[in-house]
Amino acid sequence: MPVREALRRAAACLSQPAAEYTEPLSCGVDLGTATCVLAVIDGRGVPIYVDQLPSRALRDGVVVDFHGAAATVARLKASAEEALGRRIDEAATAYPLEQAGLSCTELVDEVSAANRFLGIDDGVIVDVGGGSTGVGVYSGGRLVKLGDRPGGGHHLDLILAGTLKVTIEDAERLKRENGEEYLRVLRPGIERIATSISILTDGHSASPLHLAGGALMLPGAAEIIASYLERPVLAYEHALLITPLGIAGRRA
Asked: Against a cut of 0.85, is the pTM above it?
């Protein structure tokens, strides 16, 4: 199944499972800085259920609120069990989730998970989260360089909050709802992320960038990065779902 079709199908399953699916089911949890996403794929690798909740349990890639993280994942687990009419006892994740009642089947870093879904042989996976920007360079299907730098969606929220004199929560909401309207204000922050990408991909500046994660789901953000770095950039609708779907397993 093509990447963009799989993302559209996953988005259509938000809080509502697909009518038909093939056993066995696999679950993945992406515990993000701003949003926690639970995704379920079926035996063919097709997305059949997705749900998400706000989360503040991570900061710059580090879990700072284990109780809050466990509570958020437990809520998502309960909702998934009710929607699917079955127990969910296991999940793959980037962080252990035993406190939420889930046995960890596999620990997968975000960049590797994103590429497990995208299937890039030659190129750069850029996973921009709330607190950090992770980059993985692939050549011939092999991961040849992996790195991470502070700076992501939360830093864009800080810029917008300071400019508009609003709370960070309101800034995040405005960015999600009307991001294009504030692109001029956010441009320096987006270019800072682009600078991090440039540093992390030193020696591979010709490789195309594939944007994953929810922080740069802003109309025009990919174009700013492409112009700033003078290299091809591919953006994906529903990019927030790329990593959790990859954590859950391989795409069909």
From this structure: yes
